[in-house]
Amino acid sequence: MTRRHRGRSTVAPRRLGQIGAAAVAGGGTVALVAWTVGLLSGRGTTPWLLGRAAGLTAYLVMVALALLGLGLADPRRARRARLDRVTRIRLHLGLAVFLLLFTVGHVVVLALDGHAGVGWAGAVLPLASDYRPVPVTLGVLAAEAAAVAAGTALLAGRVLGRHWAIVHRASVMIMASTWLHAVLAGSDTGRLRWLYLATGLVVVVRAGLRYVAPASGAPRRARPGDATPARWVAS
Questions:
Q1: CA-to-CA distance for 201 and 205, rounded, in angstroms?
Q2: What confidence tens digit (pLDDT) does each residue in 153-181 have?
Q3: CB 176: neighbour CB atoms within 10 A?
Q4: Can you spell out the DSSP letters for 45-74?
């Protein structure tokens, strides 16, 4: 392997570490703001409200991410797209970073908030939450699966080849688990039912259009020189 190729192979892991560090720092900042506001306001529910807001924002970003990803995978949409594929991939990556940021903030705030009944164990382990353990577990599994999907995409190319795509196809299950978590875990679902119904329906319809695409519209086979997510990040 040449020096140039070795340099390329280290770009994705390094960028993955940078994104992870930024997400942890951002999530910690959200948690700090939540606790500071709660301390100054004297209201014990303030951290929960900010954690809930971070979670709802993460859900909406997840919807946008899923819709953009389905559009990227749809061969008919690709022929009509106004933006080139590399630009859309970078937009997809940007949304993924925001999703990671708000998800970390959501998890950290609720794990630290004693009123939420989640705790650190419930935030990272299945069925360990005192508050609605099954719905919370759906969110935990969705977040962990999303992190794996994002990590494998960034390690594509010379590290994982095209095996990242196999993991990425599970994103539809991640979206379904996220939707169920949002609907079942939130204590304010009654006020947000139309938001969940509308966004869920849009994703289902878009996924249906993607997977019923005619065989004639199937994308061409990948060629050796095609860009991978890792190369799009590095370029």
A1: 6
A2: 777 665 555 666 777 777 888 999 999 99
A3: 17
A4: THHHHHHHHHHHHHHHHHHHHHHHHHHHH-
